[in-house]
Specification:
Blueprint: E1 2-8, E2 12-13, E3 19-20, E4 23-30, H1 34-48, E5 52-55, E6 63-72, H2 76-87, E7 93-103, E8 109-115, H3 117-136, E9 150-157, E10 170-173
Antiparallel strand pairs: 1-4, 2-3, 4-6, 5-9, 7-8, 7-10, 8-9
Helix pairs in contact: 2-3
């Protein structure tokens, strides 16, 4: 399903480094079916043979639909309400894993696996609706352009050649 998740345990720290007991870092993410997580894990294992970096554990595989960042804990209920409204009318869809890609420079990149075109579009519609509902509730979020992906590795060193082909699978996202 799609859930409101905390990125870090409270307390968080403000810009001055002062602890904030009343804040949490939130994001909204689509969870993936077990067979896609298994396939992503297998791709990750293949990548470990040729790419150095910090691998993301399979328990953290998801598609981020909106990153809210620091949110006053009293507004978490508003975010949950916005999510519920955004999901109204959405039905489960089939998602198929696609190609590998990266963000950042080749010496310290974020390595990810995407989805086929139809799946990416379904996630994009979901992200658009989630972000619109957050806006209606006055909840700011990171407005970077949405790109459907699952992060496999951070600080990846991609300077040593080409990546292997990823494994692919199809599963239902609800």
């Amino acid at each position: 399903g799609v859930q409101l998740l905390t990125w870090a345990q409270s307390p968080t720290r403000d810009a001055r480094g002062v602890s904030r007991e009343d804040a949490m870092r939130l994001f909204i993410a689509a969870e993936l079916p077990e067979n896609l997580i298994e396939t992503l894990s297998e791709t990750s294992a293949v990548l470990r043979e040729s790419v150095r970096g910090r691998y993301v554990g399979p328990n953290l595989f998801h598609v981020t639909l909106a990153f809210l960042g620091e949110v006053d804990s009293r507004r978490a209920d508003d975010a949950a309400t916005a999510l519920k409204q955004a999901l109204d009318g959405h039905t489960p869809f089939t998602a198929t894993l696609g190609d590998l890609g990266s963000f950042g420079n080749r010496n310290s990149a974020t390595l990810w696996q995407g989805f086929d075109t139809a799946s990416a579009e379904a996630f994009a519609v979901l992200a658009r609706d989630v972000r619109a509902a957050l806006s209606v509730h006055g909840l700011p979020y990171d407005a970077k352009a949405f790109r459907t992906h699952v992060t496999l590795m951070r600080a990846a060193d991609l300077s040593h050649g080409t990546l292997p082909s990823p494994l692919t699978a199809t599963g239902a996202v609800s």
